[in-house]
Amino acid sequence: MIEIEHLSKFFDETCVVDDVSMTIPGGALAVIVGTSGSGKTTLLRMINRLVEPSSGRILIDGKDISAIPPHELRRQIGYAIQGHGLFPHRTVGQNIATVPHLLGWDAAKVSARVEELLDLFQLDAAEFRDRYPSQLSGGQQQRVGVARALAAAPKLLLMDEPFGALDPIIRARAQEDLRQIQQRLGTTIVLVTHDMNEAIHLGDRIAVMDRAKLLQYDTPQEIVIRPATEFVGELLGSGERPFRLLSLQPLRPYIEPGEAPGAALDVDASLRDALEEALWSGRAAVPVRDGAGKTLGRVTLATAIRQAARPQ
Amino acid sequence: MTDNSTPLSSRHVIDRLGIVIFALAVAGLFCPFVLFRANRIVAGEARYALDALPGWPGYFLLAAVGTGAVLALLRLDSRLRLAVSFAALAILAVGLGWAVDSVTPAGDKISRTAPALGFWLELLAFGLLAADSVVRLGLKPLSRIALLIAVSVAIATILLSGIWSDLSVLREYANRADVFWREAATHIALALGSLVAAALVGLPLGIAIHPTKRLRAVVTGLLSAVQTIPSIALFGLLIAPLAWLAATVPAAAAIGIAGIGAAPAMLALFLYSLMPVVSNTLAGLDAVPPAANVAARGMGMTDAERLLQVQLPLAFPSILAAIRIVLVQNIGLATVAALIGGGGFGVFVFQGVGQTAMDLVLLGAVPTVALAFASAVILDAAVELVSVKGRT
Ligand SMILES: Nc1ncnc2c1ncn2[C@@H]1O[C@H](COP(=O)(O)OP(=O)(O)OP(=O)(O)O)[C@@H](O)[C@H]1O
Ligand SMILES: [Mg+2]
Q1: What is the pTM of this model?
Q2: Architecture of domain A2-240
């Protein structure tokens, strides 16, 4: 658990982070969204003491981090820097092995871990391990940067716009992988982005920042349904809000018995997928099946439309 | 109007630098090849190649040089041009040996025969051709070092074969072989010793002042002021304080510190070397990508770990470039050390100047230039080797 209490940061006279308080439960994925220059990176860097706060404090699992020597604190916290920050003179393998080396892991364990991570990020170990960062595409560099942050399997992971350079397909896969890693290992993640879609898709909690201030810190549902300020609403995109709300709702509770024509949707899909599928194929209802292919029932267009309305 | 349409217009066939090489080589053919003096002091008599090399060798030399000049003029494959230059240089080297041999009376030990303007022009022409071809070939660092070794072996072979033994410079050498090697060792010790000292002091100094703007300004300002002092003045300036030190501190005198000799020379070279080492260390550290520094800290490296694992490796090519500058500079500057009794190849240069004995000047100057050139080639290759991998 991370407790951020009345945290402020001034650079010279300008306030870059203004009295921010928020609590991130252990094992949660918190997303910080906001426009460029709103103080996201600065807030994130105060969590691993790359930036020292001007006032306020941060507790991790109840311990004030200002009492922990910075390098020891940072070795426990994974950090994926904005724009990868790979070491140009070290190979992909050596880059990923940075923290394990600092922690003194033995060579065999490091090597196995590097391979495992490259595999996870769909980079062929034989091909990429001995390349230098300059020999990678932007997206590959970014994946290596994230793999490096994960190397020592930290309990807490800070990620600064980790998926910015990825194309939509790889980005979706990377987000999915991150979700799975997080759920499997129980990692607490703080992720910075300026993409609201990403925030809603990934976040258990979303922190919206604007001009140094934390405007709202809430679950995605609450943010979509009840944006705290006009600016938060703007960030959500007013035309998109019903669809964002639907994308937060799984199909399962809305399955009703009955038949429907055409291709079936997977039960893991969201109401938004059902709406899109129904509208696009001109059907009033869409069949739903489970992972094994067994039909569970159907979801109607009417249900999706009803659920898209703002709850009162 | 000129006609550009014909594929064989002169600009397609003629190499531009080749015109210069051709002109030099042809001019050289009309100049004396060697200079004969009955002894060290009398004025010399010029001998043309055909006089010095009677019969077929003279004609062969002229034909070979002429052919080489024409080939240099043409746009040929760089490898072929390199081969032409090496062949011409080899023929000139052997030709010089024979010419000296034939103009020196049998059994004579006091006459002096030296290469004359014609030989130097040919050397310049084909040396230029060789250098140009090597550049155009774009050789890899290791191939350049291999080429340097091959050329050194070739020169050593010529020297050891004895075909040049009657050459005036080598007669001067033969008269003082012991001194030559002693001064060579002194020269190298001066150049390398001051370099090592400058690296040992300059590197930590650069690292220490890197984070502090004010300190950087002060130190670099001071060091560049030292650089602007002319070398002879600096050597001279150090005589007084070191003499004082030697006189007042017995221990200093005991370890060889004196107002004149190797100590002030070493100190002066060290001071000259400090600036390039410090400024390249700073430049190298400045060039470390900010993101790499933040990432290193963010992953929990201590300052020492970050310095050793990230900053220094990334600054290394720049630091090595400084080592190259300093070494080449010091090999040249160490000649001046002879003026204050510091020894080195400068001893021959200044003796030669004093006695107006050109051969003696060459005996000091040629090894100095060769040493500087070889260091430059080797360290350039090293800089390139460490720079290529992993650079963005
Ligand atoms: N070291 C610094 N010194 C002075 N000002 C700084 C420093 N670091 C950041 N700032 C300023 O603080 C403000 C917030 O910066 P920050 O990097 O936290 O923004 P951000 O929300 O991450 O933006 P982006 O989305 O563009 O990455 C900016 O106006 C920036 O110029
Ligand atoms: Mg940022």
Answers
A1: 0.81
A2: 3-Layer(aba) Sandwich (3.40)
